[in-house]
Each structure stands twice: as C-alpha cells, then as structure tokens.
Write a structure and sequence with these properties.
By secondary structure, this protein is α/β, with parallel strands linked by helices. About 35% of the residues lie in helices and about 15% in strands. The strands form 2 sheets. An 8-stranded parallel beta barrel has the order 1-2-5-7-8-9-10-11. A 3-stranded mixed beta sheet has the order 4-3-6. Helix 8 links the parallel strand 9 and strand 10. The N terminus is likely disordered.
Length: about 350
C-alpha cells in the first residue's frame, strides 16, 4: 500500500506436473521462461497478507485452510528516518516491533502455517518514520548517498534471505514499492539479486507499485515472478457493478500481458484489496481517513473481488494473488474501525475469495 506507516499500524496433466516443481521446489537456478500454455490454475498461489501481532495459534492458521488459502505473506520492517536518509535500520528485537515481526515470530508463524500446508512469502517492507511519507518517495540526494543506501538496504534484505533459507520459507520478496531505487538503479538490484541467490534457494520476486513502476523495471528476468501491487483504479463512480469493473480491468490486463511477454516471467499480485466502501474501486490504494468516514458498503467490496477474479484468475500468465489483508483470530464482531479497513473477513468478499480459491 502507499502508506507503509498506516499499514503497519493496522500492521493439462503433464504440463501441470512439469510446472508445479517450477515454483514449489527450492532450487537455486532461476526457472525457464513461461511456456506457451497456461500457468496451471491448481498451482496458483492463493495468498493473504498476514497481519503480525503479539501471538499466533494453530487455530489462526487452520482458519486459513477453510478459506482454501495456500500461501501467506509475512511482513517485517526496516526503519528509515525519511525518504532521503541513506540508512535502513534492522530491528528484530521484541519491544521495538511486534512479536510477529521479530525473527522468532516470523519463524514460528511459518512453522505453524507449514503444518496446515500453507507456504510463506517473506515480504520485508521499508517503514519511513517521517509522517506522511511512503517508500515510493525514497530518493537520495547524491550518488554517494545512493551507494550508502544500497549497502544498508542489501544488509537488511540479506538478513531475511538467510532467515528464510534457514527455516525453509518458500519465497522471498526483495523489495516493495521502491520506485526511484528500482527503476533508476537496475545494476544495483541485479547485484543484490545475485547476492540473495548465493544464500537463498527459494523463489524471488519484487513488489512493484502498479503506477509508474512495474512496467518500467528492467530486472524482472533475474527474478522468478513479476510482482505487482495491483491497486489499479477501476471506476470513479460509487457502487459500480461487476460487469463495469471487469471492463475496467481490460487495459490493465493488456499492459500486464505485454510486460509478461517481454520478460517471460509470470505475474504475481503481491497485494490486491478493496475497502468495504461505495468508492472502493476509485483509488484502491488509499487508506481510510478517520476524518472523512465513508458509508459501510460490503456489497461494493464483494463486487470488486468478483471482478478481480473473473477478469484475472484465468489469465495464462497469472501465478497467483495475495489479498490485502488478514487479521489472525479476528472475530465476526471485531472492532468497528475494521469496517473501513481492507480485510474481507466475515464479509461477502470473503465468500468470493473462498469460492475462487477453491477452484
């Protein structure tokens, strides 16, 4: 999402057999280019973005199996003072971060998930501590600062690469929405990817923003998935129906397919989600503003989910989806503030997700 500060606060036969090991095994070599046939629907990543807290239970993960979820994304944070600061601080100690964001919390959650047959995408984010800033604004003032930033950021990512390797986490995202760094510094990212592959044998992606980033990145061929934060605007009208939303997906699908053909890697929606409001499809990336509350509208949220899956799920290049976001143990009568949040839990959108993930 655009505001990492607010995010954390609320924190055919043979073909199938040939392709499943492509992403499921943990081998060092990058995959071959995507075959002309479909990425098998049975092999798609059916994911949710997990909200870390101070505890997790086996029952929390068992609830995901009932939703036919097969992957979860866990998000630890690196801390950066502001968008021009050339240092990313690694914090892994409880007391300064939620337990679920510490190394031990990440490992324990992944272990519980694996017992349920659920795999883990480890997806570190950078948290900008300056109010109102988000990672897409990170931009150094000099080449020396860029060199310092990449050295610091590489140490941050390599820590999590080693953690993921040591504990068998199946995929790693090496960055999220770092537009200026990702678009303008391809050589540094290729070097980082080379370093990561020396210590980690799982699958790699990068989570690029849908706007002015994913289509401009040049290093997708070095990764296993083209990761997209898929908060595409679909309709400025309140309460749009599913048919209108499906039509609105078409230009985005054409551009996604173009990028996929260029690099020969499947596309993974590293995040996608909608709020339960009438204008959820207008600017899906926007976080709720408590000063401007919107009416509760779970029907529009469900329509956005239905359009997402109808438009995208059968695309031959789609590797999977991670729904933003999922609170462990959230009861049906949970906090009222979550009615304006992105979670589909206990709402009609949850049934839409469950039905498509079950296919």
């Amino acid at each position: 999402m655009h505001s990492s500060r607010l995010i954390r606060k609320l924190g055919a036969g043979g073909l199938l057999l040939a392709l499943l090991p492509w992403w499921g095994s943990r081998c060092a070599a990058p995959p071959n280019q995507l075959p002309a046939g479909s990425f098998p629907p049975a092999g798609r990543l059916r994911g949710v973005s997990w909200v870390a807290g101070d505890s997790v239970t086996a029952a929390d993960l068992a609830a995901l199996r009932r939703q036919h979820v097969t992957w979860l994304a866990q998000t630890p944070f690196g801390w950066q003072a502001d968008s021009a600061a050339p240092v990313v601080q690694l914090r892994t100690d409880r007391g300064r971060v939620y337990w679920g964001e510490t190394d031990s919390g990440l490992v324990h959650t992944a272990r519980l998930a694996r017992r349920q047959g659920i795999r883990t995408l480890l997806k570190p984010h950078v948290w900008l501590q300056a109010r109102g800033q988000w990672p897409g604004q990170i931009r150094m003032r000099s080449e020396a600062d860029w060199q310092a930033w990449f050295a610091s950021y590489s140490a941050f990512i390599l820590h999590y690469a080693r953690l993921a390797e040591a504990h068998g986490m199946e995929a790693l995202c090496i960055g999220t929405e770092l537009r200026h760094a990702a678009v303008d510094h391809e050589a540094q990212w290729r070097q980082l990817i080379k370093q990561v592959r020396q210590v980690y044998r799982g699958r790699l992606t990068y989570a690029a923003n849908w706007h002015e980033e994913y289509s401009r990145i040049g290093f997708w061929d070095a990764l296993d998935f083209i990761g997209v934060q898929a908060y595409f605007p679909l309709s400025s009208l309140p309460r749009p129906d599913t048919a209108a939303l499906r039509r609105a997906w078409q230009p985005h699908l054409r551009e996604l397919a173009r990028v996929q053909r260029r690099f020969g890697r499947p596309v993974l929606f590293t995040e996608v989600g909608y709020r339960a409001t009438p204008t959820a499809a207008a600017a899906p990336w926007q976080w709720p503003d408590p000063r401007q509350p919107q009416p509760f509208d779970p029907a529009t949220q469900a329509a956005c989910y239905e359009a997402l899956f109808r438009a995208c799920w059968r695309q031959p290049w789609l590797a999977g989806v991670f729904v933003w976001k999922w609170y462990p143990g959230l009861p049906p009568d949970g906090p009222a503030r979550l009615r304006a949040d992105f979670t589909p839990q206990h709402l009609p959108a949850e049934a839409v997700m469950r039905r498509w993930y079950a296919r």
